[in-house]
Amino acid sequence: MRIIAIVGVWNFQTLSRLMWPHFETAFKKQFPRASFSVEHLWYSPWQGEKMRRFADSIVEKYDDGEEDILLLGHSMGGVIATAIASRFTKARVVQVVTVFSPHKFLGGIFPRMLRSRRTNVPVVSCSALLDWIVLWGARHPDAVRHARINCDHLFGLLLSKGPAEKIAKAAKL
After folding, report:
1. Residue 55: domain span
2. Number of structural domains found in the chain
3. Predicted model pTM
4. pLDDT bucket at 112, cuts 50 / 70 / 90
5. Nearest-5° angle of CA 6, CA 10, CA 15?
6. Are 40 and 7 a contacting pair, CB within 8 Å?
7. What's the CATH number where 78 sits?
């Protein structure tokens, strides 16, 4: 299985170097035979076309039918992950895990902007109890499981491996 991590908006490479290793370690502990990769792009939430091209590039890169896929997205990366899950035609997406993602902001403007469709892929969503960015709720409307993590939107993920471990455990269906 491939675990494909998708960054959120305004994600500096420096932040990624601090945050994603926690997720890689935690998810490989839960899914020991999986590979782990991170897809990076600097983008802003009002750059819909750039986000759609980013989403398209992920599908194009990984939809080869070689391995099952678990999509893992932080913040807007979770919205992108849910938007592309149904677009894989050769590879089977077995799960989407969203971490502190703005699924419901302004009535779901971001999923609509990304042309998201409902999918039969199981979604596990996670919200941060101390989130200072996604204040309106990060529960995905079709989540099969939702975990509330004692963390803020970003700093807890950067400074501690604990939140990533809890999210990875929640992802184990």
Report:
1. 2-171
2. 1
3. 0.93
4. low
5. 70
6. yes
7. 3.40.50.1820
